Amino acid sequence: MPEGQGMRATLQRRMLLLGMIPRRPRRLSAPDLKERLAYRGIDVSLRTVERDVENLSSFLPLVCDDRERPYGWFWSDEAPLQDVPAMDPETALTLQILHAHSAQLLPPSARARLKPQVARAREVLDSAGDASGLSLWPERVRILSNGPPLNPPEMPDGVFPILQQGLLERRCLDITYRSRSKGQVKDHRIHPLALVFREPVTYLLATMEPHQDVLHLAAHRIEASTLTDVPARDPEGGFDLNQIIRDGAFDYPEGELITLELRVNADLAYHLHEARLAEDQLIERGPDGTSRVTATVRDTARLKWWLLGLGAGVEVVGPPSLRDAIAQELESARLAYRTKDPA
Amino acid sequence: MPEGQGMRATLQRRMLLLGMIPRRPRRLSAPDLKERLAYRGIDVSLRTVERDVENLSSFLPLVCDDRERPYGWFWSDEAPLQDVPAMDPETALTLQILHAHSAQLLPPSARARLKPQVARAREVLDSAGDASGLSLWPERVRILSNGPPLNPPEMPDGVFPILQQGLLERRCLDITYRSRSKGQVKDHRIHPLALVFREPVTYLLATMEPHQDVLHLAAHRIEASTLTDVPARDPEGGFDLNQIIRDGAFDYPEGELITLELRVNADLAYHLHEARLAEDQLIERGPDGTSRVTATVRDTARLKWWLLGLGAGVEVVGPPSLRDAIAQELESARLAYRTKDPA
DNA sequence: ATCGGGGCGTCAGGCCATGTCGCACAAGAG
DNA sequence: CTCTTGTGCGACATGGCCTGACGCCCCGAT
Lengths: 343, 343
Prior knowledge:
The structure is a homodimer.
Chain A: H1 7-20, H2 30-39, H3 46-56, E1 62-65, E2 72-75, E3 82-84, H4 89-101, H5 108-112, H6 115-128, E4 141-144, H7 159-169, E5 171-178, E6 185-198, E7 201-208, E8 214-218, E9 222-231, H8 241-246, E10 257-264, H9 266-274, E11 282-285, E12 291-298, H10 301-309, E13 314-318, H11 320-335
Antiparallel strand pairs in A: 1-2, 5-6, 5-9, 6-7, 7-8, 10-12, 10-13, 11-12
Helix pairs in contact in A: 2-3, 4-6
The first copy, chain A, binds a DNA duplex through residues 1-4, 6-7, 10, 29-31, 44-48, 50-51, 66, 69-71.
């Protein structure tokens, strides 16, 4: 009998095993596990591994799939997340906040991926709650979203995980895409390149065989997707996500640095005092209740949109180009309302 | 000797212990641990618990604080997160996306609380990355934020966790607050009531002794905070966060349900086709390239702000009240630009 | 100085964990 | 059909770990 080096080894090995066993669709057999342990420098007999998982499954939700002969082990779907060290209540609260906020950003199938983490956070919060039984969440925390009041589009179940997986493993995908020219549904083989989240729409950047140009595929228009074994390639000439975005592919051209000068009302001045436009922002209070704000910012579509949205609360003083652009936009927007009779 | 019920018990007990030992500032002594085990139905001698943690610390980053006599055990700061079942790559990617997005929403000290989770996600992604060594994150994923282009205010380190803790444990706080009337710094004892995140500013709702009215304290203006042992109380008459927000305390009154009717240009029509204003949204394409959109939505400040921001791309046709409001806002905003000479 | 409590070394006993062996069973090859 | 191979699983011997009990020691407090 080889010298055992203590029970330490047993506990360690079993914890390693727990970390190796996957969730539902994946599965690992006892010989698989033995090999992976060996790879980590732990050599035990196959019989021991078998006994290990059997033992662990007696008090953990491990399931043995005995339909196929090399039995496969995996975690039960309802297996709660156990983290070590345990999540502290503050982290749990932060996680819950983020998850709630993500409703605007991520498709439901992506959010569903965080279910174990969120459930765990909920558990921590509930048990950390005071004795009065008042649960802190969600009664006492609220997120007021500032994005556009639009609903994220619905996406067929199961598509998004495949996109993620294809991107992660850099494998081609076969997708069914409903193209923008209404209703045309076609199958394509694509090389996934990148994901862009532009609230509330998610885009997959990809090339479509046999072409080389980078396309923006709205994720919710992908009706079905399957993973292939063909490795994905970047387009000839390389792929630079930053460059693509900087070039304005998503209406987000970076824009020049400008010295923005605004005249704002007292309310807005106070808000800007709290959340600044830029590090070098200056606010001078004027005599008439308005304030003059200067800051060095980028001239982006988002900035214009924000300035327009503030309506009469703000006047763009400079630079002249931006002032003109805003003035013109206001002017032409106003035109539609000049006739008494709405169109 | 009492009947042991197998090695199962040992392994299970030690894993439970791992889940009970907290991170840094907190600590648990062996008697504490024994008691908590007993609470969970596991009765072992104190000596056994001592031996357990000693054993575990031989291969896990557990630290024993032996400066104070009832020794305290806690996890090393560098202890990596081990989760069971292991995080899958898709979840890891989702977590990273959320974390990146949270830069606009949460103060840095709150985001820092997710460090172990994010580090773990990073680890999973790196090991799942393809053999080419190209790391997926953050080269291939990008989030384009749609909120206002403002920087979240800075907050003194260490304040936010105290706020969270006070709220969670419902204990009073002693804070140093820089009031809105510029520069006035005062100490107060407060009863924390709720947290409101309104991008990019975070507010703590609280009552300030000896008063009963609910105040909105901007978290970044709290310069210092300490936890007290005094239990926090809700104000007389109860506290209803939903009611407060519905009443418009944060410029977010809920608003009536209205039948919104818009005339939009082709681009915007397409965007609305993707991300709808409401479930019942209808789009009719007009002959002149514009489209008519109708949807049942809430008449909120956010909606007005969004409509204004779209500028000439949209015309509010109905309801008349909203049409008038937008028209008026455009009119008065335009006034500032009528004089050739900027103010 | 005395005392008490918590930490820790020691010890005996029982039982657990491990490798080995052998058998059963299914699938696939010859 | 038979043989082989891979796999699951029961049995067994043995070494050693785990457990509770006991008592010593150190340190702080009275």
